[in-house]
Amino acid sequence: xxxxxxxxxxxxxxxxxxxxxxxxxxxxxxxxxxxxxxxxxxxxxxxxxxxxxxxxxxxxxxxxxxxxxxxxxxxxxxxxxxxxxxxxxxxxxxxxxxxxxxxxxxxxxxxxxxxxxxxxxxxxxxxxxxxxxxxxxxxxxxxxxxxxxxxxxxxxxxxxxxxxxxxxxxxxxxxxxxxxxxxxxxxxxxxxxxxxxxxxxxxxxxxxxxxxxxxxxxxxxxxxxxxx
Amino acid sequence: xxxxxxxxxxxxxxxxxxxxxxxxxxxxxxxxxxxxxxxxxxxxxxxxxxxxxxxxxxxxxxxxxxxxxxxxxxxxxxxxxxxxxxxxxxxxxxxxxxxxxxxxxxxxxxxxxxxxxxxxxxxxxxxxxxxxxxxxxxxxxxxxxxxxxxxxxxxxxxxxxxxxxxxxxxxxxxxxxxxxxxxxxxxxxxxxxxxxxxxxxxxxxxxxxxxxxxxxxxxxxxxxxxxxxxxxxxxxxxxxxxxxxxxxxxxxxxxxxxxxxxxxxxxxxxxxxxxxxxxxxxxxxxxxxxxxxxxxxxxxxxxxxxxxxxxxxxxxxxxxxxxxxxxxxxxxxxx
Lengths: 228, 335
Ligand SMILES: Nc1ncnc2c1ncn2[C@@H]1O[C@H](COP(=O)(O)OP(=O)(O)OP(=O)(O)O)[C@@H](O)[C@H]1O
Ligand SMILES: [Mg+2]
Description:
The complex is a heterodimer of chains A (about 230) and B (about 325).
Chain A: H1 6-13, H2 16-48, H3 58-73, H4 76-82, H5 84-91, H6 96-121, H7 125-133, H8 138-149, H9 151-169, H10 180-189, H11 194-222
Helix pairs in contact in A: 2-3, 2-6, 2-9, 2-10, 3-6, 4-6, 5-6, 6-9, 7-8, 9-11, 10-11
Chain B: E1 2-3, E2 6-7, E3 9-19, E4 26-37, E5 41-46, H1 52-59, E6 67-72, E7 75-76, H2 82-89, E8 92-96, H3 107-117, H4 122-135, H5 151-163, E9 169-173, H6 181-198, E10 201-206, H7 209-215, E11 218-223, E12 226-232, H8 233-238, H9 243-249, H10 253-257, E13 263-273, H11 278-286, E14 291-300, E15 303-312, H12 314-326, E16 331-333
Parallel strand pairs in B: 5-10, 5-11, 8-9, 9-10
Antiparallel strand pairs in B: 1-2, 3-4, 3-6, 6-7, 11-12, 13-15, 13-16, 14-15
């Protein structure tokens, strides 16, 4: 009895599976990177302009919160399809990995914003007050107090965001993108090769575990609150 | 002392602070007038909720008074631009009950923080920070993180940090409330040293009379948002006028009053040498069978502060009274 189906060994020989792993990692990390570029400032703003933030601006807080909630409440598949015109506008195509990255960023940035907001919320009010008493400007409080003091929590949030984005990225196949999800559907599901599906499942689990373990290690290592 | 031709001092002019609006409004402080002079240690005492924290936070405008003026060294904080206010705050250090250190920074970097904010070069900032850690006797802890320190050590770091930018004022909001008595004493001694050696004016917020008695020159007693009594600590402590001051100064008198036999006398220690055996002298020289009803004394820098409430049999009272008078020991009869 053969352990691998012919198709699976072919996929490995031709490097399709390897490419799939790379594409999944690439989709996830590039999207996460840009999601943070957009989501981090929004998350900070959500907290800072909130009623117990350092610069309450109720209307701005409400508007931001509303936009974030709208995007957060649309299921990813629907949002992805709806955002294809935006992808076309931004990267010139509504097909493939590039378009996928755009839709992933749009879906993940609001999620990241909430993650960042909740991490920053954990910073002790007393510490902020102490910084204010030393004549620290709001900008410097964000830069030198809020972000550094919540760093371990921000890293944990990034790990959770990465895993979520990785999950979304499995749907790239529907718009002609790549990755392990696409391989599982195109070669496994549609051609009745269960072993390919399982290989993709296991590889995904391994990637998630690696992100999780390395991220948590980093979070733990940077946290100076724990006696070591 | 004069500074730019202006008398250095903190003037609180008729300040009130109301939280919320309409029916739910809470007046935390009401029409407070206090002048804190250069070089003194000024105490603000009151029960929980009296408005102490609100008042002290008005001094550096962490809280904007609803009405009234805060004038520091002649500058009206309410009339400053945001930038000028931030500058002005650098002249007023503050420490807190919860220490409020940056948990992700080393001790040294915590002390550097206000200097970083003021744009001081890193090397200079670290040099200054090390001097301050020396001052608070924590030089060997510069590489530690706050989580590795005891409460007393944390408060020392907080003091070093508050002093880093060379402020002329230091505000202390319940700075020793989370500390045990020994540590409290050492922090109070440090505050006294800072006041004497660096000439920094200190405002101490507390709910404990013994702290006021130990280190303050003057005190304001805050009761339900208003100043009930203000004056020299010696005067207020020896002879409290308002009900609230009596309550804070004489916490045990009520219990003592229920004992009917004998004369009850309160002896006040206001910085006499702590080596003087007052009680033993009363017993031995007057032959009085003295009973201690309440004792609360502190030894700060070899001086005794606090009070002692004793019960003396009627037959020996005259002798004791003569002894106390002859040795000019401050006391009052409680019956
Ligand atoms: N931000 C705020 N919003 C609404 N009410 C407040 C606020 N801060 C204080 N208060 C109210 O103002 C009053 C005085 O509070 P404050 O904290 O000044 O008292 P305190 O004397 O410092 O008490 P404690 O000894 O418990 O610290 C309290 O009734 C409190 O509930
Ligand atoms: Mg308070």
